[in-house]
Amino acid sequence: MSAPDARLLGAGIVGVGLLGPGLADWPRGAAVLRGDAAWCEARTELPAPQGLPPAERRRANASIKLTLATGCEALAMAGRRAADLRTVFAGSGGDGANCHALCEALASSDRRISPTRFHHSVHNAASGYWGIAMQAMAASSVLCAPHDGSFAAGLLEAMVQIDTAGEDVLLLVYDTDYPEPLRSARPIPDSFGVALLLSPHGGAPGLARVALDPAALHRGEPAGSMAQPGLEAMRRAIPAARSLPLLQRLARREAGCVLIEHLPGRALAVELQPC
Q1: Helices then strands (H, E): number in the chain?
Q2: Which of 233, 225, 221, 228 is nearest to 267 (CA)?
Q3: Which of 20, 18, 17, 16 is nearest to 192 (CA)?
Q4: At what angle do helices 62-78 and 125-134 cross, to 10 degrees?
């Protein structure tokens, strides 16, 4: 995967959260990814946001509900508290429905924007609501990569933080769908989110260690794909679902390397070794 003198970044996966079309949570999603259960096409059902005060709970949009659901699942699996936990949020475009509503307002005769719509339009809205819900005071990074590379970019950022700070990091990657006519330009059909709680201290039983070379981006090699046509269509359509090949290896406890789209025409190689 890298030259002998390259420095690999490594961490243990100690918690996972998953929510997407036909993937209601990590246990049920892992059963599908292992082949123990059939994937049934279904819209993503976003649960009511937990931990928020009533006013913020009423205002919570899809990206907030998605990240709270997956993040809390990963925390519960690992038995960790969120208050002092570093976070990395990565998404390709924020909340699609809110973007649509803003565009409608700006195209109308009354161009006034509601304060809620405005503060939901910033890219760190999900991170802010996470801090409120979890009473989290630790550092939080929010990023995206060109179009479909946000999962790889978020994973790389989280691994660098683990290497430099020596602390656990919760990675939350998410995308939400766009209504028409935006969907024709950016055809994301549904919401998908994944959370990985990464630790420098190693993985718990049943989970794994991941390693990557931050300097090695593979050019021209095909990224990992899914054999099941429905899951492969999801992987291609929703940027956060580029995580599915890595999640499948994790669910099956298979060692190996997965290439994940990062920069245009280049892929990040991620090695996975079950514990």
Answers
A1: 10, 8
A2: 221
A3: 20
A4: 50
Q: Does domain 9-206 have CATH number 3.40.47.10?
A: yes
d(CA 275, CA 130): 30
E strands, the chain, are 9-19, 86-91, 140-143, 169-175, 192-199, 208-219, 256-261, 266-274
The pTM for the full model equals: 0.91
* Side-chain-side CA neighbours of residue 95 (13 Å): 24
Tens digits of per-residue pLDDT, 238-273? 999 999 999 999 999 999 999 999 988 889 999 999
Q: Give the β-pairing of 266-274 and 169-175.
A: unpaired
> Which token pair is 202?
């190693």
Distance CA 144, CA 139 (A): 17
**Phi and psi angles of residue 209, each rounded to the nearest 5 degrees, phi first:** -110, 145
- Work out the pLDDT band at 202, boundaries 50, 70, 90: low
Q: How many residues does the chain have?
A: 275
Q: What is the CA radius of gyration of the chain?
A: 18
